[in-house]
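Step 1: inspect the first sequence and its tokens.
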Amino acid sequence: ELNAESEKRKRHIYDEIIKKKLGDSITLPEKPLSTEYIPYSGGVEPDLLHLPTDDDPVNTDGTSMFVKPITDYWIHSEVSLPQGEEMKSVNVVGRSKDADGSVIGTYDDDPHLNTMLYNALQCFTMLY
């Protein structure tokens, strides 16, 4: 089937079209390729981009919607904690809370003064 005359003719035509458009290793194309960017639209208008109108969106309690506290960056991360003479890898799963549901500890920009407590899991056991 690959050696049939009709298939050879198809491949030859295909090769000639490519050579005419892009050239080959010895000759360059007859005219240079355009470097102008023309975005593809497909004949369909793109959907309009709807941006929020509020410049500083906040939740009902007054906290910013898009800015996470720095303390939340620890959640879902893997950290190494000293356990006796060894370092154990644990996954931080959330902030520790007391019986009333309040977060235990206070945040401070200085990591040495930060007293926030987190729940961490290692091999499906809770570490404190």
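Step 2: inspect the second sequence and its tokens, then contrast the two.
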Amino acid sequence: MVLDTVSLVSLLIAIGAGLVLALCAAIEASNIMLARRRLRGITAPGLVPLMRTYVRERQRLLRHLRAGVSVSTVTMTSALIVLFDGVEWTRVLLAAAVTVVLISSLRSASRIVTLSRPEGAAARLEAPARALQLLLRPLSFLLSAPTAVPLRALGL
């Protein structure tokens, strides 16, 4: 199969977006694990200001990584649509831009509202979170199993 220029560019963009997505997810997971391992049981003078700074920086990094995941997902989807359907790039770029703005706005708004009153939000979100977890658990397993099962079998 010989790819024309548009198909080749679409494929390369999809691969690049996939790599960025994987990188963002890996960095986020690494950041979370480092925080858990290094900060347990530390007691030292001046720790509270240091922890506040750490939490601010960590939240900033995670926010940037979430933006990277959103942009990567939309970019990959857009490139694959062009690759498989041959749709005009201008339409796809417009749809992608609108999608990134919507995803980012929804994520930011939900985080800001939730973090403004975390205790109340946690109580209100408990039942919906359990329902979503119950509904999404099979899908999550099906999506992760093709990668997770062989890697775990290799001891990773």
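Step 3: confirm your contrast with the notes below.
The first helix runs from residue 5 to 38. The chain has a mean pLDDT of 76.
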